[in-house]
Specification:
This protein has 318 residues and is of the alpha/beta class. The protein is built from eight helices and eleven strands. The strands form two sheets. The protein has a seven-stranded mixed beta sheet with strand order 7-6-5-8-9-11-10, sandwiched between helices. Strands 1-2-3-4 form a four-stranded antiparallel beta sheet, with helices on one face. Bound molecules: S-adenosylmethionine (SAM). S-adenosylmethionine (SAM) binds next to loops.
Length: 318
């Protein structure tokens, strides 16, 4: 990661910008040189004019790894509305994303939608096995685990007696039916993203096929960092099925690859979690026991992104 963000062509300080949702740049925070006298901008503008292309040019863009690329612009002011003025810690979900991105078709209280328990599998058996394997590999025996947005199954597989699992969700019957929970809390993260737990309580926080319902993801991710121990791990697992009326618009309009970028962005924009790993499993055959077997649909894809808290002292007494 470069220390400063000086333009390689004119030396001016570049501005941090929100990645336009329609771009394929990927990553989280890009920087653009908005100096109108920068040779990269003026030369590209002239070169395109010579080719008969009017009112188009490129500004120099730096990606999160410090690599340079072009940002196409059609006026001197184009893309300036994407400049981020807040410090990373002050970026909120609603200052980073457009309000529509985090809106949903059904804006009634989530508690109402989840009044009715749903004792259903959200994934086919092959995908469920993959989730169990991911959690099995990443959760040490004897951990204290928070299952964030929990249902009747935490997908943790074999849970040792020394392991403590706490569930947070919206439906009491689902949480009571979950066989590995030692404790559960009913809490609506969209009306209050604050987690009702003390600092540094958990070794691991898992979130399974539910991140698409968060309307304030950055606030929730920051809270996860707060309740995690300094060397703790946050594992976010997702697929491509959803309760459409409750999923946020930016999720619904994104491709599966863009959703991976989106989740990565939740980690990095939170300013409190550093990504440690990524896993993807897709294209496996649909299991024979599944109702869609024989319909030409592969097994549900599984994506997992995990990361650790940043800026936490490891000398804390637990
Ligand atoms: C698709 S289910 C997944 C359940 C479970 N994580 C699993 O993998 O089987 C979505 C879960 O998210 C929880 N949920 C949805 N909106 C929520 C909110 N606003 N606050 C807290 N939990 C929420 C619901 O209780 C529901 O159990």
């Amino acid at each position: 990661m470069p220390e400063g963000h000086a333009c390689a062509y004119c030396g001016s300080e570049m501005d941090p910008i929100r990645t336009p949702p329609e771009s394929s740049w990927g990553g989280e925070m890009h920087h653009i040189c908005f100096n109108d006298d920068c040779s990269y901008f003026t030369n590209s503008w002239k070169a395109l004019q010579n080719q008969g292309i009017d009112k188009t040019g490129y500004r120099c863009r730096m990606d999160p790894r410090g690599g340079c690329g072009p940002a196409p612009v059609w006026s001197e002011d184009a893309l300036k509305d994407l400049i981020v003025k807040e410090e990373p810690d002050e970026i909120t979900s609603f200052s980073w994303f457009r309000a529509h991105d985090l809106g949903r078709d059904d804006e009634t209280p989530d508690g109402d939608f989840y009044t009715k328990p749903r004792f259903v599998d959200h994934l086919d058996s092959c995908a469920l096995e993959t989730v169990e394997q991911i959690y099995g590999r990443l959760t040490p025996e004897g951990s204290t685990i928070l299952d964030l947005m929990a249902g009747p199954d935490s997908h943790l597989g074999k849970v040792y007696d020394s392991t403590i699992v706490v569930g947070l969700g919206l439906n009491k019957s689902e949480l009571e039916a979950n066989p590995v929970l030692c404790e559960h809390v009913i809490h609506d993260l969209n009306s209050d993203p604050h987690l009702p737990f003390s600092d540094n309580r958990f070794d691991v926080v898992v979130n399974t096929v539910s991140v698409d319902y968060l309307t304030q993801p950055l606030e929730v991710f920051r809270e996860v960092s707060r309740v995690l121990k300094p060397d703790g791990l946050f594992i976010v697992v997702f697929s491509n099925r959803m309760f459409t009326p409750k999923a946020v618009n930016v999720w619904k309009t994104s491709t599966e690859k863009q959703r991976v970028e989106l989740v990565r962005r939740f980690f990095s924009l939170s300013g409190r979690l550093a990504i440690q790993g990524y896993y993807e499993s897709s294209g496996k055959p649909r299991p024979k026991d599944d109702k869609y077997f024989g319909h030409g649909i592969p097994s549900d894809p599984i994506y997992a992104v995990w990361g650790k808290p940043t800026n936490k002292s490891t000398n804390l007494m637990h």
